[in-house]
Amino acid sequence: MATASASEEYLNVSSFKVTIDGHQWGSYDTVSGIGIDMEDVAYHEGKNQMLNRPGRFNARDITLSRRFKKDKELYTWMKDIKSGKQVRKSGSIILTDDEGKEVIRFNFFGAWPKTWSGPTFSKDASGNQILSEEVTLSVSDVELS
To answer: Exposed end of the chain (fewer CB within 10 Å): N or C?
Structure first.
């Protein structure tokens, strides 16, 4: 029976953590949007043929959401940007296996908070509503390592 090589194994999310500027930023429930878009530039080749080549790239925004906590680290970062400070940070989203060993890492660079959303409040009859917050980071570049 053939076994799959490491490059053919499928990954599942056992656990992940987010680090920004070298320290772990709380426990996030979801991370989405990691990616890069490339421009498609058409150019003329020969008499009647148009070809495409890659142009400029743009890293996609990364959205992080977590349970709302008493700390204000996300809001403070947004407040700094709002006041005109150019506070860009770099970080990583690190996937780990069941034993906590790193499996893969997505590094992002030049990030700043584009949006921050605080919790939504409602009068839940059960009284068990979990508050959450979300931040969307505009990033300059993303790499897989």
So the answer is: N
SS3 122: coil
Beta strand spans in the chain (E):
15-20, 23-24, 28-32, 36-45, 49-59, 62-67, 89-96, 102-117, 132-138, 141-144
Structure tokens at 37: 């878009």
Pick from 40, 38, 16, 41: which is nearest to 27 by CA?
A: 16
As a whole number of angstroms, the distance between CA 143 and CA 22 comes to 16
pTM for the predicted model, two decimal places: 0.80
Helices (H), the chain: 73-82
**Residue 107 to residues 90, 94, 143, Cα–Cα distance (Å):** 8, 8, 5
Domain parsing of the chain, residue ranges: 10-144
Class of domain 10-144: mainly beta
Q: What are the pLDDT digits (tens) for 58-112?
A: 999 999 998 888 878 878 888 999 999 999 999 999 998 888 888 899 999 999 9
